[in-house]
Amino acid sequence: MKATIERATLLRCLSHVQSVVERRNTIPILSNVLIDADAGGSLKVMATDLDLQVTENMAAASVEMPGAITVSAHLLFDIARKLPEGSQVSLETADNRMAVKAGRSRFSLPTLPRDDFPVIVEGDLPTSFELPAKTLAELIDRTRFAISTEETRYYLNGIFLHVSDEDQPVLRAAATDGHRLARFTLPRPDGAEGMPDVIVPRKAVAELRKLLEESLDANVQIDLSASKIRFTMGGEGGVVLTSKLIDGTFPDYSRVIPTGNDKLLRIDPRSFYEAVDRVATIATEKTRAVKMSLETDKVTLSVSSPDNGTAAEELAADYGSDGFEIGFNANYLKDILGQIDGDTAELHLADAGAPTLIRKDDKSQALYVLMPMRV
């Protein structure tokens, strides 16, 4: 293989694929990225960790000899990063080495044959629909903070996507770690009817969100089956992310969404967030608990810690029900408040032991449920 490529093009492409590659691998070829040059003048670059695969096509300045080889992803990325701006990079393979040349720089890197490189077999992906990249990015942002990191409950280690036909056909995304729940709802896209319920793993969600950042004004093609999902960004010759799905059953989360919470608190999410953040400075790492005392049209936040003393702050709010006290994990509360843009957030409360429903208003696509803590 022999090809020449613009440094900027190579760097952009490698930055997309190299983060899929795990730094520590027991299988040497998984540290590598596959580079495939074709006679038509394009280079295909692919990286995988066996569960997740990213492929991107890029235009080469020239392909003098077609061919394919695998080379260390992180090494090639670091080299491309340090080469001078505007340089042309020549990639040439011979005798199990790849020569990388740019200006006066010369590198010779070890390679492994392309035939050993594992490729995820997608099989048939019967469900196929499109979503605007902006919508998909918002769906991820509004839910992913609630994904569980507990490996034992592996079925919670991702975002659950499913369709529902309650009042009208919708596509829903949900994530929960048992302490909080985030749900995002949008009208069901054409082609999503009859879609299987799927759980997209946390790492695939993170990689997808990074890739979306560069194509926010375009659409994303989503193809899936019960075991695999593929996201295509930038149309033909764009970036394709394919991931295995989590093989498990997501719990029926709708049961924990409270419907009878009759105490309504309306408050400015920004100032509420900042007040929680301030009083939580005193909270110890272990508890992170903030107590909320509700009275007519005001909320008092307080924290007391045997080691660090006490903190309290009073906030004006719109509240007209009976006064009571409830405790929350400060970080979880801040995560949710940070997702609400606008001047008001609604907290629907019942009592100190019942889950609280939080949302911007009854028309918002995002809805959150937070379990209280004893304080």
UniProtKB/TrEMBL annotation:
GO terms for biological process: DNA strand elongation involved in DNA replication. InterPro entries: DNA_clamp_sf, DNA_polIII_beta, DNA_polIII_beta_C, DNA_polIII_beta_cen, DNA_polIII_beta_N. SUPFAM superfamilies: DNA clamp. Residues 1-120 form the DNA polymerase III beta sliding clamp N-terminal domain. CDD domains: beta_clamp (cd00140). GO terms for cellular component: cytoplasm; DNA polymerase III complex. It holds the Pfam family DNA_pol3_beta_3. Residues 255-374 form the DNA polymerase III beta sliding clamp C-terminal domain. Residues 130-252 form the DNA polymerase III beta sliding clamp central domain. It is found in: Cytoplasm. It comes from the Bacteria. Forms a ring-shaped head-to-tail homodimer around DNA. Belongs to the beta sliding clamp family. This is Beta sliding clamp. The lineage of its organism: Bacteria, Pseudomonadati, Pseudomonadota, Alphaproteobacteria, Sphingomonadales.
